[in-house]
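hey so i finaly got around to running the thing on Tetratricopeptide repeat protein from Pyxidicoccus fallax. pasting the sequence first so u can double check i didnt mess up the copy paste, my clipboard has been acting weird all day
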Amino acid sequence: MATLAGPPALAQYRPPPMSESQRMVKEGESAQVAASAASAEGDKKGAEEKYRKALALFEQALAAEPGSVAAAAGVGAAANGLQDWQRTVDRVQPVLAAHPRELSLAYPLGVALYKLRRFPEAVPVLEQVAAADQAEHLIVHYYLASYYLYAQQGDAAVTRLTRYLALRPAKLAQNDFQIHELLGRAHVLRRDVASARAAFQQAQAGRAESPTVQLGLASVLELEGKVPEARALLEGVTKRFPQAPEPKEKLARLYLTAGDVARAEAQALALVKLGATPGAHLLLGDVRLAQKNAAAAEGEYRKVLQLQPGLLVGQMAVGKALQAQGRHEEAIQFLEAAVRSGANSLELWATLGSVNRRAGRFQRAVEVHRRVVEMAPRQALGWVLLGADHFATGQWDQAIEDYSNALQVEPEHAGAKQWLARALAHRARDRAGTGRMDDAVRDLRRAYDLDRTAPMARRLGAALLETRAFPEARRVMEQGATLPGATWREGLLLGYARLASGDAQAALEAFNRAGTQTEEPDAKAETSVGAALAEVELGQVDAAVQRLTAVGPSRAAEQVAGANLPRVLVRRALARLEAGDAEGADRDLDLVDKLGTGNRSDLTKLALFTRGLARAEEGRHAEASAALKRALTPAPRWAWPNTRALADAFVLYKKGQVAPARKQLAAAAKKPMPGQPKWLASMTGALHRREASLAYASGNMKLAEKALKAALAADPEDALVQHNLACVDWRKGKAANALDTWRRLEASVPVAALNLGIDAQERRREPAEAVDAWRRYLAAGSGPRLAQVREWKERLQSLHGLAESSTGAPAAATAEETP
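ok and heres what it spat out for the 3d tokens, dont ask me to read them lol
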């Protein structure tokens, strides 16, 4: 009773007895602590014995209680201490599945998976542990950062390394240089040049020169575009550290990129000599491949797999070497075997699909590359490869869609831009072939926006010329001719663009400059033909005809010349007619008939029209009318609605039928076309002058005066009309007015001197004055009456004792007929 009634202070707490599993866990923990102490003292053998004892106890505890978190955590810690990673995975993973938030399980399991390089499984577990941000899990941040660097995820690596530096205890600060070096590599991935340089410099500060840090600084120089400086830096590092493999490998890679295969080979051989590592043989294989020795490259790549079986990069390299030898089926089988063995690399699938494409297995290539898209939906790689598959089979619409998808994921992907532009160019070519020129131009505009190169500018410029968008074609080619790699072809198209936009002088300069950019006879012939067309527009028709009749060896130039020479000859014939050279115009038209105009009915009719005008000039009026009628029935495209009336008026004018000609001209003038009013006014004046000439010849001075005054009203400054009107005054007895006019016009109208002489001889009987006036007329050296006037002058001189008596002198003033 006394005992039971004792005060509570006398009672003692006793915990519930431990289970057998708990007891073994406690003993295991004691053994684990002892193992850690032995390891810290450098007693590796003792530490291993104690870890094995702890592991045995923890495994017994876990067997007794399979769901025990403490026992599973102990197994994981002890097994990891013994580097028995697979045991940790086998024992801890099932328990973690039942307790997914238990960090004591996630930590050892994540480390074990990481050590087994089972990264897809390890990373989520380690990220869970890292999120707890506990100091005892410090190494997790390091592991994650290392994986992110391997996976090329610079931002994530920077985050983990920064956190590591914040959590690490002060006693580990002496090793921070390693973390700063990793930080530098992460910033290189981020392309943050300033941060990368600062991290590498901090890693190097206060320590002996480190080859790997110098390697990082070389990467910074590469980012800055200072590749020669990067090579120089590494060359120095390899000399100071001849046993360091990493700088040699990086230097060799830089040499390969620069195309300096010989130096790359020297570094690769030196690297192999240092140690027959997988990386060394991989590099040497790449060198052999660059030397176009695919068989030797295959041998090196197979050595990589002998040293490290299943190495993914080695498997892909062997496939690449087999492919380079044209052994596509072997390459496919090799890479398929790698896939079946469990390799699941993005690069492996990408290479497998590409080899299938090169082997002509396009459907399989598409299937494989679709898997690449599924594996990396946020990368452009899969879409670019799919685009290449569809590009190879000419499926332009699908290829364009693929490359567009790639640019949606990575807007600045250079390869996607380039190949999208090429696919658009191919589709544009097909569309142009089916007459869809507007669609073709749209594709080429987009292609040129993506790929600002001279060839792409040339494609767009040609399409714009085809659609008669001449100003835009000129703008495109002005730029295209200045782009890197521009050749005479861009200059040739620029010339045509300028010519089409109406700037013949600039076009001629472009054609001539293009001719200086090549030494090929065919190319020079093409530029010469273009220059000829520009010369035509500049009025240098003779030079153009000479170029077009002596083309050169180019078939293309010959075709262009053959298509344009008849047109140019017709144009020269028209120019000769305008200058009054009907005979020369006939020669050109005869040559046109010889060359032929093909099926160009408009040019045929223009030549016939020109022939009709030439016949009118020659006075063969019936032939002229017939030719003009055939040329204008039915009306060709180049003819205006009133061209027929104008042509008839011209023939009637040449026949001297002024009234009918004036009637036709009046009909044509009711609806004048652009540019015609000036010509109509000129033709009206010509009709007045022709009417005056006919009236003067018939003695009808009244009608002649009326017609000349009408002509003078239209053009008061016409000196020849003023002269002829003075002739009418002289015939009407108004000699004083006539003489005043002739004296005033003598400098510009030579025949005025002739008439002054006639007046002096016939009316005023002043032979000396007449001889002097005719001498001035003869000195002018022009006019159809030079021989006759010379005879008159000599006869007058003979009357004064110098020769026989003068006879046959003119009895009236001479009016100069005007066309």
